Amino acid sequence: MSVTAPQGFRAAGVRAGIRNQSLGATASRPDVALVVNDGPQQVAAGVFTRNQVKAAPVLWSQQVLREQNLRAVVLNAGGANACTGPDGFGDTHRTAEKVADVLGCGAIEVGVCSTGLIGERLPIERLLKGVEAAAVELADGEDAGTRAATAVLTTDTVDKQAAVGRHGWTVGGFAKGAGMMAPSLATMLVVLTTDAIVTPEQADGALRAATAMTFDRLDIDGSTSTNDTVLLLASGASGVEAEADAFTEVLTEVCADLARGLQADAEGVTKRIAVTVTGARDDRDALVAARTIARDSLVKTALFGSDPNWGRIAAAVGASEATVEPETLSVTVNGVLLCEAAAAVGDRHKADLSGPEIAVEVDLGLGGGLATVLTTDLSHAYVDENSAYSS
Amino acid sequence: MSVTAPQGFRAAGVRAGIRNQSLGATASRPDVALVVNDGPQQVAAGVFTRNQVKAAPVLWSQQVLREQNLRAVVLNAGGANACTGPDGFGDTHRTAEKVADVLGCGAIEVGVCSTGLIGERLPIERLLKGVEAAAVELADGEDAGTRAATAVLTTDTVDKQAAVGRHGWTVGGFAKGAGMMAPSLATMLVVLTTDAIVTPEQADGALRAATAMTFDRLDIDGSTSTNDTVLLLASGASGVEAEADAFTEVLTEVCADLARGLQADAEGVTKRIAVTVTGARDDRDALVAARTIARDSLVKTALFGSDPNWGRIAAAVGASEATVEPETLSVTVNGVLLCEAAAAVGDRHKADLSGPEIAVEVDLGLGGGLATVLTTDLSHAYVDENSAYSS
């Protein structure tokens, strides 16, 4: 159930004292994670935030990924190393160099991920000592994977891990945060591993396809982090060549599992909401409409209040850039049809939203386009977590 | 200070019992308003929500505005008459017919505006009786204008009115809600009046220019109402022909005054935030960047917490569709430069955000583009107001 589920991987999570001491309890958590690919292959692929303001570790990892080859990934919580200028980039470079030293590889074979507050330099000496300690702790087995998965948590309350074994090979992974290259609540970092034999092109194609259908369709608050990163490392240690479609399918399954974990643990969540749009002119229109509904503060507060206020859903979809015709628009909430031809049908109170899962289904009645976006409600807890003074 | 400030106008606000009785105190408020243009001219112009799902009164008013001539506007709170199908449109039509009856004009000379819950039919008999009562109460003078301005309030806590007299003519108006054709918190309805002599083309051009720079740049939560409407009625009663630029200028002044009133009374507001973007490639880019910052939940919760968390501002602008270069990006909050070349400068704690006004200034350093968007924070009170069960 982790990055160490596939053969050929070791991991570690240690406490380096990077987290802000003023945070109390969370400061005593581990904050440096290391994932190492012992091969025989070291194929890698990555997808990154689309934010134009990119953190130093993103700029670094994008650069080293050009070789499509990674020996290791080092991650830290306690600081995003974003908006830190050339000195911040130097810190990332030094971190990769330190990992290269302890593993006996080149810095260009080391991916780096960071998460935490934007705009502050990392305590680099502590981080480098943490890398040394992590190298000593490296181990295979589930516990080691869990220690790594735990070391990168920030406002997360539980670690998010997944693994699927099939066809003679396995895909594993962990994730922190919630959101993705387009949307992001806090930074999302994901490390995926596999012991399948895959080509660099296959790894890249499968990762793009899998993230597009999973993390890219998780939208907590529409914000986009400077640090979002998803890395895939393939060791080939199973000795089995993966068939392209099967690999994409299993990778998508693991990503979907992790995405649901991120949704369930999102900041302030009280409702897990799936917004499905059908009958759109095309899939792109469906995605645009679903995302607009998922981001709408009035929809999200209504659902927090367990209110089947379908009028706000109709208003949100009408305000989207998707083509909408009121005459063919219907809205169903938790299986109860509430709106047909953009007008009320039945008794809205029959839609029971008191539970933690809400399914919003909008049929545009215009074509075959279809998409689902996962989101959460807008609650008091969300406001609490995000209005707490940052330092 | 109202729609009755210019010569040639009468107004009324009465209680017709349309508001949901379960709302308690607010149910006893007046809920039908009537504004009548006694001429000699009856020139009119309107701008409407861009939502593809338009309320019946919007569809009606867009239709009658083709004649660029209005004798009266009737408005109701207590129901949006949106997503109510052909029957709902029939209700709007009957309302206009009733106004036409009591005033002795054609229904095609009557604009209609509604605000309240989406998806429920109006209690039409009560509304028609309200129109009769309003016709009896019609009067000139400030009190009558205030009664009309008060009758359309929903979650508003105060009436919003403005007037400017200059060049021998006057522009007056009232507004309810917050937001506009693109963005909207709750429905925004605005009625503007003037006794200047203007042509229909001049009225239309001035109204579009004025709203684009004011209500269109007020963004409370990025949502877009099905009902947003701004109507301008010109009586020509001053006998003075308005010069085009002067008219646009005064109209913009009145709209800006009303927009500030909407911002100050937005749902759950504790901070009035002005986001100004300078140095953009062009004005459009500046507006896109400013609007993205103004809509960002992480920025809005940080400012609710009086936290000068400029990293979230930098992340939001980087995620916008405007062109952003980190190397030339700076962020100033309440006059204190916090970020230069996308990196921290100075002591963030010097930016004191404890007061109710916050100025966020972002310089993209790329060109001469400039825009300001007004918004508010994302507070517990906002969640409270919008998660209360709708019925």
UniProtKB/TrEMBL annotation, chains A, B:
It catalyses: L-glutamate + acetyl-CoA = N-acetyl-L-glutamate + CoA + H(+); N(2)-acetyl-L-ornithine + L-glutamate = N-acetyl-L-glutamate + L-ornithine. The record marks T115, G116 as: Involved in the stabilization of negative charge on the oxyanion by the formation of the oxyanion hole. The keyword Acyltransferase applies. The active site is at T187 (nucleophile). GO terms for molecular function: L-glutamate N-acetyltransferase activity, acting on acetyl-L-ornithine as donor. It is an enzyme of class 2 (transferase). Its EC number is 2.3.1.35, 2.3.1.1. Its main location: cytoplasm. The keyword Transmembrane does not apply. It is found in: Cytoplasm. The record marks A186, T187 as: Cleavage. Pfam families: ArgJ. Pathway: Amino-acid biosynthesis; L-arginine biosynthesis; N(2)-acetyl-L-ornithine from L-glutamate: step 1/4; Amino-acid biosynthesis; L-arginine biosynthesis; L-ornithine and N-acetyl-L-glutamate from L-glutamate and N(2)-acetyl-L-ornithine (cyclic): step 1/1. Keywords: Acyltransferase, Amino-acid biosynthesis, Arginine biosynthesis, Autocatalytic cleavage, Cytoplasm, Multifunctional enzyme, Transferase. Substrate binds at T154, K176, T187, E267, N386, S391. InterPro entries: Arg_biosynth_ArgJ, ArgJ-like_dom_sf, ArgJ_beta_C. Belongs to the ArgJ family. Heterotetramer of two alpha and two beta chains. HAMAP family: ArgJ. Catalyzes two activities which are involved in the cyclic version of arginine biosynthesis: the synthesis of N-acetylglutamate from glutamate and acetyl-CoA as the acetyl donor, and of ornithine by transacetylation between N(2)-acetylornithine and glutamate. This is Arginine biosynthesis bifunctional protein ArgJ.
